[in-house]
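As noted in the main text, all predictions were made from sequence alone. Below is one such record, for Ectonucleotide pyrophosphatase phosphodiesterase family member 2-like protein.
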Amino acid sequence: MNLHRCVNVILVGDHDDPKEIVANLTCKMPNQHFKPYLKQHLPKRLHYANNRRIEDVHLLMDRKWHVAMWTIFLGFGPSFNFKTQVPVFENIELYNVMCDVTHLPFGRPAVLFQTSYAQLCHSDYCSGYSHVLNMPLWSEFTLTAQVEVPAVSSSECVRADPRLDLTHTCNSYSQEPDVTHAFLYPPDFSVAAEARYEASLITNTVPMYPAFKSKYCTANRNVLRRYSLKNNGINVIMGPIFDHDHDGVRDTEEKIKEHALGSVFIPTHFYSIISSCENLNETLDECDGDLRVTCFILPHRADNSESCNSWEDESRWVEDLLKLHTARVRDVELLTGLDFYRSTVLPYTRVLTLKTHMRTFEDDVNRCYEPLDVDSTSCRCDSQCVETHSCCFDYKDICLLPTESWECTTLRCGERRLSDSKCHCSDDCMSAGDCCTNYNSICQERCGTSAPFMQSVFPSKTFPNHYSIATGLYAESHGLVDNNMYDPVFNASFSLSSSEKNNPRWYQGQPIWNTAMYQGLKAGTFFWPGSDVAINGSFPDIYMSYDGPDFFTIYLEEPDSSGHDYGPVSGGETSCERKEALQDFIGDVNHLYVNEGPFGRIRAKNTLHTLDAAGLVANMSCKRPEQQITPYLKHHLPKRFHYANNRRIEDVSVLVNPRWLFERYPGSLTFCSGGNHGYDNDVYSMQASFLSLGPKFHFQTEVEPFSNIELYNLMCDVLEITPFHNNGTHGSMNHLLRTPVYNPSHPTEQSSPEQCPSGSDINARLNLSDAEDLNHTSEDQFDALTLGNVVPVYPQFKRLWQYFQEVLLIKYASQYNGINVVTGPVYDYNFDGHFDSPEQIHEFVAGSPIPVPTHYFAVLTSCQNDTQTVSECSGELQTVSFLLPHRSDNMESCADGQPESQWAEPLLWMHQSRVRDVEWITGLDFFQDSKRPVAELLRLKTRPTAAIHPKA
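Prediction:
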């Protein structure tokens, strides 16, 4: 058998169920450094499921064992800002930036798909109730830092909503033993009795698995409280997601109905978008600057097996789980069909940046010799970390090197002062007069526009990412899902050493050189993946030197070659002693093909046999206390991965913890030292660099990180050509250009809120309507909750959702000085990352009136200035979004018997997404009522998850 060395190796079997493989790989060892996943269970931020070439089983290595997965971005030229640093972005955004460079021609979320829904506003929250799904598409509320949450949860009873003529009642949930209801807006967040009653309406409920609810909801409540305290209030948007086909786009209503559990439509995920003011001195209401946004997409599972841990405090593992499932707001948008941040005062381009920003949690700079936190699950930078083998990967370079060296490195620039340093590279060293001799050349040398890093697409491999830059597409969309892959329709394998590499059938999308040529420009490229293939029958132009090309690309083997040989920072990062073997989890692997390395995919060796993917994942999940892999069905992967909607993506994916590797059987992976990439693309070491220089770019400017899919549009703008269809968000990179050529605008809303058929006041003290016979005593107000705020959820998922509402939103509101929250269901049964049509949803929930969401989304918005609240924010906004898989178990977190505080938040952050992803998958468009420029809003929506971190 040919096994790919130190890359993804695929296991192929005659009959094994991928679910069984994943179950056998999950939580098997005390020190397991990877997690196995079915590809549909991979974090949505990876966008790595919707392709047939992606195997069913994948392994993600522990982040503590990651090597460098980020890349560099530099922009220079007349169209770019000068000496400007921008926030982190994903590399898929580069396509649109390139097109822009070539000059090619906060309110309720907007619903960008045809449906019937009502906007219901109450004392403390607003929601968009879907008549089709019998649950809210979103719930939005602001949590101030001063809010006091009762220690005892309110009643679980649900009351009818007199404003709507609903046939959906609590009985709809009680008829299904495997699902219960949860409140999208936590009633406990309301102080007044009337407000708590309003949150008890049926229109505030979603369907949820009991295990998900019992573990998640309470812990989430505490997490939100902490966020609110730390951020001076937060805005929270939450809701369900339906992505049953795992394509990363909202399922149609027809498809959602096909997957109904009886009469209940079960979300596959739940999302949360938490926003606060960047200036912590401002509340959201006062915020006149930028926003800070955190987004999660949590898989709705019937168990909590994803988190293999033993934390007694539920909020700890819930927060860790949230971190794992971080996403961009844009991811939530894609998965819900919603559009967020329409009423913010930020420019639309800034909103796009927030939406496409991916918040990550690997920010280890300035943590040197921090106090030891014995409860911390992340890597450490204290003086004992060497003895415990828990140091962050850059500990030596950031914490030890300054005491031994007289020079600055790029990692040291902006460091916190250390008393034992020979010289300093901190921002104040010039005024202190103690800079290292090369400080100016290393830390101050800025010409064009750069970003701290540029987020790679998942998997963080060479061919997928270079082709993402050229097309602006995720790997699942352009078809190059790995350096090595198998296409079941072609019945052929692709590798860098095979002749198939030159076959155009593997290359989907339109690379930038073709875009340029089709619009009359001359294009040249040099050693760029795909450039030597006749894609769509075309090669790049070749011209004489006197008539040089208008567009040119070049690929250099460094630093990739040295990174593989020696590691990204301090020598070898992976080790042959840090490997997890599939055979140790399931036994016989002769019938399986395994893609080995830092990210695993598994398929049956005999293509005529069907792999039991779910059984394989179950057999790999939660098998050991320190398991280093997490198995996923591909449609359960975090939506931020964008890794499901391709037949080349196997059904079972295995996420491997950083610095660990996954192999078929012990010893099968022999090349296992040095550095490697392919891990979770939120990991700092997986990011790329960006530099730009030229007359169109700002001079000496640093911008926020962005995703590499945005480069395609940027390159088109620089070339003054019109971008071809891509996954980037055109206009989100305008802030890099001196004179942007593309002026984005809000999409046209397709569905407007309807008027409530009944005019009853839900706070009425007397029954003035013939429509309902409601109780009006103060006691009875707490005995019923309204159906208009209800969505169908699996009982296990409800644990997660309740913890998110009752703990995490309070935490985030506190951290961010209040947050605006929009939540709702997602229907993505075909897991293409876009909202399903009513016909598609009906296909999956045939015979049931209740469509079960595939996911639930949450978009949380706050002011970057955390001294201002969201409503006051005068500066930039920030968001965090989540697309939570709606699953009937919580196996992804290994949560059985564990309190939500130990697994729920990591799961939430694992399924973080961009706001743009939420818009895609829901059909909604957020922030349409915002007065901010559209380009600013696009920047907000496309902010990559790798650049969004939870507050400590």
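Residues 111-147+174-185+201-362+793-941 form a domain with the Extracellular Endonuclease; Chain A fold (CATH 3.40.570.10). The first helix runs from residue 18 to 25. These features were considered when defining construct boundaries for the mutagenesis experiments described in Section 2.9.
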